[in-house]
Amino acid sequence: MVKKSAANKNASVKAKAKTEADSDKEKTAKSVAKKSTKKTTKKTVKKVERVEEPTVSNVEANAEIKSTKKDSEVKKTIKKQAKRATKKVKATAKTVADKIKDTTEKIKESEVKNVNKEVADMDAFGLDNFAKYLFHEGKNYKSYQFMGAHLCTENNVKGVRFTTWAPHASKVYVVNDNTNWSINDKYEMKKASEGGIWTVFLPGIQEGTLYKYAVLDGSNKVLLKSDPYGFYSELRPNTASIVADYDNYKWKDSRWIKARNKKNIYQSAVNIYEAHLGSWKLKENGDYYSYKELAEIMPKYVKEMGYTYVELMPVMEHPLDDSWGYQVTGYYSVTSRYGSINDFKYLVEAFHKEGIGVILDWVPGHFCKDSHGLYRFDGTPVYEYSDGRLSENKGWGAANFDLGKREVKSFLISNAVFWFENYHIDGLRVDAVANMLYLDYDRRPGEWKPNKYGENKNLEAIQFFKELNTAIFKEFPYVLMIAEESTAWPLVTRPAEIGGLGFNFKWNMGWMNDILQYVQIDPKNRKYHHQKLTFPSMYQYSENFILPISHDEVVHGKKSLIDKMWGDTWNKFAGLRLFIAFMLGHPGKKTLFMGSEFGQFIEWRHKEQLEWQLIDEFKQHADTQKFFKEINKFYKDNEALWKYDYDGKGFEWIDADNNEQSILIFMRKSDKPEDTLIFVCNFTSSVYYDFKIGVPYYGEYVERFNTDSEAYGGSNQVIEDILVSKKEGFHNQKNSLLIKVPPMAALVIGVKSIYKEKKVVKKSDTVNKKEEENNNK
């Protein structure tokens, strides 16, 4: 009997649909055959009648005309012809009947074959053979549908089917409270594939049951392991997996999904707020806010501040708080620190209701080496490389995934699909891509193994990224796949089919490093480092870049973003405002870590909440938060700042070479000339009056934004009057303006109106026109 389980849900549905379809085919065929019989018989009878009637008529006519013939001969002739016609009718009827029988037998034979095929598609344990085959081939991108613990009914008995992969295990058992966490033969798993898939159906197990796998290695040593495909986990420090239904949430975010799937993300405002759920805000007693409690406050705040996306540091299960989530043990398990599976879905949905997309940090390069996790899962390297020079990640104390192992690819790519499909997320920020691409990354000579060509490129990682991104964009074409790639690896954001890695965005670490070094330099010396501001423009269109200021830049003695700024308190706040305006004006999408938006001075501490009290206690912090709110809105409202981030027509230098005064001037452009914005960024504390700049149009200009406004804590060197350009070329522009440049600030000038040029008609042209008119007469 074919077993029906949650793991085989799709296969069962397919089988049912197929059986119903075949049944429909049989009914249709019988109906057609029946109609065919009637039709054929009718035609034959008509044909006989056409033969009979004229023959009888002719005979009677002849009998009357030729009275010399006997009546018996006439009757004899009639009988012979009638007999021949009857034989023809019977033969035709038999042919039709044979066809009906043959068609029926073929339908029944096909029906049996289909049933046999469905039986053949399932193994003795009710697992889909094709799903197992794809898993071992590295091509099952939804392996979570049969791997792990699935609530199901088999042979009319409710329970759970457990399935795991342990290729070198001698035996595997499920252990839980019922077995006193020790081996019980009734809970022994059966080997379901030569490649090492183990499975068992246990009746009576319910949702919420804690469990682990007792894996016996080659020497029969028992290893207690959490489920690699576990959908939920115990709260740390406990490490058991928990039977859970991950697919019973009633989503109400269809409007968001539809809108997302119509958006051209490359020509949209993308301003990302990066956050850590465990330290964004805490309760008065120091406890975490739950997913549901965060859903009531966090989405509204992110929207109010003008961001368009939130990026959450890893929410996959991890045992150590100090890892911030980057040492994962439960890739399919949303962390239980803040609540349940459906609670997290509620949080995602709450962000969507506020028009905020959700991006998750994802770590497919390395995993936690804790004994209950993936590390040496069956006593041998299963998920990691066998060669220590490839597997050991000494910098992070982790193990590197063996990306050349096909089952590992199924595990990881399925995991990415899982978060998009089951949690409705809108993007993944893939962690430490460079560490995966380079075999010698952060390793000394002798600590790494070259590839087959003697190079330092990880060929398996390259292929993995291509397959990952191809699979994701095939099913979810409108999401974000962001690479944290810190080198100059080419074509990171180009499609796999043309040789790229297939991501659609990449962090611009070069820009980040240059600008963060620059803002710490004394303004009087900045003229010697001017190229740090301008050099990124040399490669800004080589990839689809995101400009990131992430958590990594505000920890471990690097100082907070505001504290990186040069000078006293006034200059630090002014420098922060200038920095953000320059960042929002620069081509590329944006990412900023939490706490920067109100000028938190201390570094990020993952065990403490942000210093929200600063906003209430100090006007400068409140003004800074107001600044962020208003400049983010300004960014979102002006398509010139994002529509052509990846097209040269959206950006133009006016003056990139004024290193003596440390001033940069550039334009951001859209389709309409009136949308043009001119940025004047002054990286010194000097004020400049009657400062001449080139502008593209003859007309009126106005100040659109000024980071030096007193509303934000600045010195209020603002421009209140309308500026009228002169037809005096400057900075390679046809027109020019005289402006006031505020100190340590960014001034944004917009076009108010463009004067129409009056055509000057020469006298000679008028004479010639009159002569031409006379000639035409």
From TrEMBL:
Superkingdom, natural source: Bacteria
Keyword terms of this UniProt record: Carbohydrate metabolism, Glycogen biosynthesis, Glycogen metabolism, Glycosyltransferase, Transferase
Composition bias, Low complexity: 1-14
Biased composition range(s): Basic and acidic residues: 17-29
Catalytic reaction equation(s): Transfers a segment of a (1->4)-alpha-D-glucan chain to a primary hydroxy group in a similar glucan chain
Entry-linked SUPFAM superfamilies: (Trans)glycosidases, E set domains, Glycosyl hydrolase domain
Alphabetized CDD domains for the sequence: AmyAc_Glg_BE, E_set_GBE_prok_N
NAD in keyword set: no
The keyword Transferase appears for this protein: yes
Domain Glycosyl hydrolase family 13 catalytic span(s) in chain numbering: 274-629
Pfam family, one: CBM_48
GO BP annotations listed: glycogen biosynthetic process
Comp. bias regions, Basic residues: 32-45
GO cellular component: cytosol
EC annotation from Swiss-Prot or TrEMBL: 2.4.1.18
Residues annotated as catalytic: 431 (nucleophile), 484 (proton donor)
Pathway: Glycan biosynthesis; glycogen biosynthesis
Molecular function in Gene Ontology: 1,4-alpha-glucan branching enzyme activity; cation binding; hydrolase activity, hydrolyzing O-glycosyl compounds
Residue segments, region Disordered: 1-56
Complex and partners: Monomer.
Entry similarity comment: Belongs to the glycosyl hydrolase 13 family. GlgB subfamily.
Function of the protein: Catalyzes the formation of the alpha-1,6-glucosidic linkages in glycogen by scission of a 1,4-alpha-linked oligosaccharide from growing alpha-1,4-glucan chains and the subsequent attachment of the oligosaccharide to the alpha-1,6 position.
Designated name of the protein: 1,4-alpha-glucan branching enzyme GlgB
Source organism: Inconstantimicrobium porci
